[in-house]
Design a protein that fits this description.
The protein is mostly helical. The chain is 66% helix and 4% strand.
C-alpha cells in the first residue's frame, strides 16, 4: 500500500506549497471585489477549474478518464453554500486558507477546525437524503478542443511570465496567482487521474461521516494528501519568514469556533466546500457546483457587508503584477 501513497503525497506537497505562496482565499477574493471593484482572485479560482477541465479533457482524448461524478442542483445545497460563506467570512479564511493561516502560526485556527468537526457532526443525521444521488460521468469528447485551446493560450501567458521574470517567479515570498492556480490544477488533475480525488473539506466530511462523497473511498490517501499539504504550507511559511506564533485570545477562539461550526454545517449540506467545488465539482460539469460556489461567494459578501455596516473594516486587497496581498 505504501508505494501507492508516494505520488498522492508528492501531489499534496505541490498543492499545499502553491496555495500558500499564491495566497489563495475566497474571503480575500470577495474582499478584493468589495474594496477595489476588481476580481483578480475570483477569476483565478475559475482559472483553476478551467486548467483542471483542460487537463482532464486532453487526458480523456488519450483514453485516460478521470473518475468523475455529478450531483443535482438542490435548494439545500444553495443554503449550505450561503451558510458556509457566512462562516468563512467570520473566520477570515475559507478551506485552504484556514490551514495556511494555521501554518503561519495563527493558533486560533485550531478552533476553526474544531468547529468544522462540530458542524459536520451536528448535521450528520439531519442532511441524510438532502444531496441527491451522485452519478458517475465522463467528460464529453468535444471538450478536448476548447480544453487544449485553454492550455495553449494560458500556458503561453505563463511561459512569457517565466521568460520575463525567470527564477524570480518562484524565488519570491509570494507567487503570481496564475502560477499558483496552474500548479494547484496540475496537482489536483494528477489526483483525479489516479482516482484519488481530494480536498481539505472532503477529508473532514469523510472523517466525521457527515455525507457520502467520492473521496471517502480512499480514506488513507485523504489523510496523506492533507498531511503533505499542511507540511508544505508550514515549510513554505518558515522559509518565507512569515511563521510566527500569535497570542491566543479567548474572543478570537470563540469566534472561530462558531465560524467553523457554520462552515462545517454548510459543508455537510452541499456536501463539500469551496475547495472541492473548484477542484472537482466544476471540472466535472456538475449542475450543482457553480451555483453552490456562487452561494458561498454570496454568503461571504453578505457577511462582510454586514460586518462593515457594524463598523468593522474590510481589509483592502492589493494586487500588482498578478500578486495579491492582504491582511485578511
Amino acid at each position: 500500500m505504501f508505494p501507492d501513497l508516494i505520488l498522492p503525497a508528492l501531489l499534496g506537497l505541490l498543492l499545499g506549497a502553491s496555495a500558500h505562496r499564491a495566497g489563495l482565499c475566497t474571503v480575500k477574493a470577495v474582499a478584493e471585489t468589495m474594496t477595489t471593484g476588481q476580481g483578480h482572485i475570483l477569476w483565478s479560482f475559475l482559472k483553476a477549474s478551467l486548467w483542471t477541465l483542460g487537463f482532464l479533457s486532453v487526458a480523456a482524448a488519450f483514453g485516460v478518464d478521470a473518475d468523475l461524478s455529478t450531483r443535482p442542483l438542490m435548494l439545500s445545497g444553495l443554503a449550505g453554500g450561503l451558510i458556509f460563506g457566512v462562516g468563512a467570512a467570520m473566520n477570515g479564511a475559507c478551506s485552504f486558507s484556514t490551514l495556511a493561516r494555521l501554518a503561519e502560526g495563527h493558533g486560533s485556527m485550531v478552533f476553526t477546525l474544531a468547529g468544522w468537526a462540530l458542524g459536520l457532526l451536528a448535521m450528520r443525521g439531519v442532511v441524510s437524503g438532502f444531496h441527491g444521488t451522485a452519478a458517475p460521468t465522463t467528460l464529453p469528447v468535444w471538450l478536448v478542443l476548447p480544453g487544449l485551446a485553454w492550455i495553449l493560450w494560458e500556458g503561453g501567458r505563463l511561459a512569457l511570465l517565466f521568460r520575463r521574470r525567470g527564477r524570480g517567479l518562484v524565488g519570491g515570498g509570494y507567487w503570481p496567482l496564475s502560477l499558483g492556480v496552474f500548479l494547484i490544477a496540475l496537482g489536483n488533475s494528477g489526483l483525479l487521474l489516479i482516482d484519488r480525488p481530494w480536498s481539505f473539506t472532503s477529508t473532514a466530511i469523510c472523517a466525521t461521516g457527515a455525507a457520502p462523497v467520492a473521496p471517502c473511498a480512499h480514506p488513507v490517501a485523504l489523510w496523506v494528501v492533507s498531511g503533505a499539504a499542511i507540511f508544505a504550507m508550514l515549510t513554505s511559511a518558515i522559509l518565507r519568514g512569515s511563521f510566527r506564533l500569535r497570542a491566543l485570545r479567548l474572543t478570537s477562539a470563540l469566534r472561530r469556533l462558531g465560524a467553523g461550526s457554520l462552515m462545517g454545517a454548510g459543508a455537510a449540506m452541499i456536501p463539500g466546500g469551496n475547495d472541492g467545488l473548484i477542484l472537482f465539482g466544476i471540472p466535472s460539469l456538475s449542475a450543482h457546483a457553480l451555483p453552490f460556489w456562487f452561494g458561498i461567494v454570496a454568503g461571504i459578501w453578505v457577511a462582510l457587508a454586514g460586518m462593515r455596516a457594524l463598523g468593522a473594516r474590510v481589509p483592502a486587497i492589493r494586487c500588482e503584477g498578478d500578486i495579491c496581498r492582504a491582511g485578511v
